Amino acid sequence: MTSGITKVTTHISPNEQLIFERSQEGRIGYRLPALDVEESPVDDLIPQQFQRDDDLQGMPEVSEVDVVRHFIRMSTWNYSIDIGMYPLGSCTMKYNSRLNERVARIAGFANLHPLADEEDAQGALQVIYELQEYLAEITGLPGVSLQPAAGAHGEMTGIMIIRAFLDARHGAAAAGRRTMLIPDSAHGTNPASAHLSGFSVKTIRSTAEGLTDLDHLRELCAHGDVAGLMLTNPNTLGLFERNIKQVCDIVHEAGGLVYMDGANMNALVGVARPGDMGVDVIHLNLHKTFSTPHGGGGPGCGPCCCTKELEPFLPVPRIVKTDGAFRLDHDQPKSIGRVKAFFGNYGMMLRALAYTLTHGYDGLREATEAAVLNARYIAEGLTSDYDKPFTSPPMHEVVFTDKRQSRKGVHTLDIAKRLIDYGFHPMTIYFPLIVQGAMLIEPTESVGRQELDQFIAAMRSIAREALENPELVLGAPHDTRIGRLDEAAAARKPVLRWKPQVAETEATPASVS
Ligand SMILES: Cc1ncc(COP(=O)(O)O)c(C=O)c1O
Fold first, then answer.
1. Is 397 near ligand 1, meaning CB less than 6 Å away?
2. Are the beta carbons of 158 and 281 closer than 8 angstroms?
3. Rounded distance, CA 399 to CA 215, Å?
4. Helix-then-strand count for the chain, H and E
5. How far is residue 28's CA from residue 289's CA, in Å, rounded to a whole number?
């Protein structure tokens, strides 16, 4: 089914038995050293009801090499950022540099206790302080907190700050300002953050061009109950909201504040600053723009950056520098309080600082330019074969649809599955929701020309297959250990645990339930 295609990766062993099926009686993985203390009866150590009496029946009997090879073989089925291009739009799956990982493992940082005294943690506090300073410079927003643990957490922190600010400004009358405006293209976490922070949400339409509809914005602002606007820029269609200054003016004139979802900052760093555009508060995703891991080495960090006016409302403790020393300041009466234990995910801050310092200003700007250039290269390369609903040049990501392929019954999901046969991780599909059959592609700056060309060639080949042999695409993936799953059933009735069969006849492999 896949002959003739150029794969960029292959699985070395597509058929791996369960570890239980590899079991051979008498195989041993580890021998305990001889007892060199006085033996105690088991009953003295473990209460009887917690002891098992089945001699570990059903557990696999395997050697160390059996175990290592089993798991290493399975690890080759995982697609990872270290294997190749990961074009998940909106996720900014860029390479996580090994240098940043080394920095995060420096013993003095990695082993520092979070309750260490300020005097003993000066270096660690300096790292947080300096990263805050750099992020303030990059965003043009001087108040920074690194506490939030993810993008959505940073959003919620920012929206809580807006609420606290409005409460301080209007007193009881702030209860009449509880509407948050959010464009219809927004990421789902935006309305969720607004709702959790006590706001009701009104949706702003996008224009046919894919930008915020200014007339609709004015109309909604005229109601007098607007607390603010949550806007992603570039928006989730990959387009720069070129009216951003006007958007901010309209919201400010209506007495609201502007929150920018900064998850797409990879298109702006070193080139344009949200603070200069009129934005009041923003979150960043260090696990996107600043190359810290999304998984594995995660969890993430979603710093919240704001104007001087909003700074007193940031979470405590703040890290301040006086007479060359760093200290924790808890005395911030207007603060929304703490949003995360200790200082947030410190390992992410070390990696992000290493990323920032190793790039420097020129390097950060170059990374941004390369990310945008790569997305535009793909946009150009695929326009002949796929419907591109918006004509403006994209920023760091580009959206296509399945409009042409769907005439042959081939839809976005099928194209994404077929891409796996070509050795690529699929793009983001069916997001943003306002684009029917959306395929959102974000290459990032971490891919070179050769890989971009391979990706374009794969996508164009799939477009041809959709026309000439749609069944091939509809049945994909063909080249993986497991074919297409019933994703709804997998989500609704997940099978998360293997249960050993209490074997009457020993050899039968256990069932899965
Ligand atoms: C535009 C946008 N906003 C917010 C988020 C939320 O970030 P996180 O997943 O870190 O909570 C994402 C995540 O993909 C996003 O793409």
1. no
2. yes
3. 25
4. 16, 12
5. 46
Ligand 1 atom closest to residue 264's alpha carbon, by position in its atom list? 1
Average pLDDT over residues 373-390: 98
Contacts of 80 by beta carbon, 8 Å cutoff, 6+ apart = 86
Confidence grade of residue 509 (pLDDT, cut at 50, 70, 90): very low
- Compute the CA torsion angle 207, 392, 441, 448 (nearest 10 deg): -160
When the pLDDT of each residue in the chain is averaged and rounded to a whole number, the result is 93
3-state SS record for 333-370: CCCCCCCCCECECHHHHHHHHHHHHHHHHHHHHHHHHH
By the 8 A CB rule, do 257 and 247 touch?
no
Q: Which of 90, 184, 292 to mutate to test the pocket of ligand 1 (most atoms within 8 A of CB)?
A: 90
Q: Which two tokens stand for residue 396?
A: 């760091």
Ligand 1 pocket check for 90: Cβ under 6 Å: yes
Least confident of 99-103, 293-297, 392-396: 293-297
Length of the chain: 513
Position 508 scores a pLDDT of 45
In DSSP terms, 202 is beta-bridged to 181
Residue nearest to atom 5 of ligand 1 (CA): 151
CA 147 vs. chain centroid, Å, equals 17
Residue 314 to residue 161: CA distance in whole angstroms: 7
355 has a pLDDT exceeding 50: yes
pLDDT (tens digit, 9 = 90+) per residue, 144-191? 999 999 999 999 999 999 999 999 999 999 999 999 999 999 999 999
Residue 400, φ and ψ in degrees, nearest 5: -120, 170
Residue 98, by phi and psi: left (phi above 0), alpha (psi -120 to 50) or beta? alpha
Using the structure block, give the residue that is written with the tokens 């606290």: 164
141 CA distance to ligand 1 middle (Å): 20
- Site of tokens 């300020």: 118
pTM strictly above 0.85? yes
The crossing angle, in degrees rounded to 10, of helices 244-253 and 214-221 is 10
φ, ψ (nearest 5 deg) of residue 54: -105, 10
Q: Is the torsion defined by CA of 121, 127, 130, 132 positive or negative?
A: negative
Its sign, for the CA torsion 56, 59, 61, 64, is negative
Considering only CA atoms, which of 9, 8, 10, 12 is closest in space to residue 73? 12
Lowest-pLDDT range of 103-107, 274-278, 486-490: 486-490
CA 13 to centroid of chain Cα atoms: 29
The CA 91 to ligand 1 mean position distance, Å, reads 7
Tell me how far apart the alpha carbons of residues 87 and 426 are, in angstroms, rounded to a whole number: 7
How high is the pLDDT of residue 511?
36
In what side-by-side order are the strands of the sheet with 398-400? Answer: 398-400, 439-441, 428-429
